[in-house]
């Protein structure tokens, strides 16, 4: 493993920053303290800082030479609304808030790279360090774009990475094309007429219609969508009624839809609305149907993905770079990739054996209350970002 010596020597200090951020988690668009910590560190290292994109975003600007070329490196900075079960010294001090997805670690890896880049500018051009808020449902990437990220900081490409529990530390996974799915929600209300449960003929019961609707939605996946196009419809909540002897006058259904392409998403949304309204009509019910598109699919660009694969292989060895198995999870880095070429890939977080005493009893998995980021990744991730930035800016321009 070809790690950078200065990043290795700086790792304890960056680890302290990471654990401080972990102990003070902030939710989407509330990351004021986190942004202050990031901006203070960058400023101390002589890196100019731009703040306020996406409300709490931070962009560090590292320039060298005369080239106008630029590349972006992104880390997300927000936490999740959940209670941490760990009891070690750097556990969350904020009840109901936790860095359970490793965004504190993503921030630390980019800060490690930032410190090295500031003192060892072995490139010609500009590296933009993009610390993005509100990945966990807030669409912070979209908001940074709306606020002018790519106009203020034009870049040839942007790269991002996510830690991945269960994959060994020191290993990576990368793939061209779709790697994370789109994330979408639906909300359906069926309105009928309430009645006594002993006299159902005097009412219009929405519950049987809801049951048929749930089953019918799955035929969209099995009979309308091409079998080779991935898609998932999950009805996750059904609410109706308040008493066992009363037929309710309404039933509410909610859930999610995930796809790897917008074409498949268009088909599923259209068919779901038709199925819902047609079943409601057949049962003489009124139907309210709402479909909310959150994050588009994350689709890596081919040339940038091959570039990442080559650089990771050179640093860690080809045997340490796996093929990224796409997941139906979602990632708002997708908004960046819709605007600018780039690649989003994985860095192994290990099996959880890195956790210090006092961790919770649960597994060290993403969005688990016993999770903690593996600090051994800080010098690895920092070296990774430096290698990618230097290689991109020093290669011949296409």
UniProtKB/TrEMBL annotation:
Top-level taxon of the source organism: Bacteria
SUPFAM superfamilies: Bacterial exopeptidase dimerisation domain, Zn-dependent exopeptidases
InterPro entries: Amidohydrolase (IPR017439), Bact_exopeptidase_dim_dom (IPR036264), Peptidase_M20 (IPR002933), Peptidase_M20_dimer (IPR011650)
Residues that, per the record, bind Mn(2+): 101, 103, 136, 162, 367
Enzyme class: hydrolase
Pfam families (UniProt xref): M20_dimer (PF07687), Peptidase_M20 (PF01546)
Keywords, in A-Z order: Hydrolase, Manganese, Metal-binding
Domain Peptidase M20 dimerisation, first and last residues per copy: 186-281
CC cofactor note: The Mn(2+) ion enhances activity.
EC number in record: 3.5.1.32
Protein name: Hippurate hydrolase
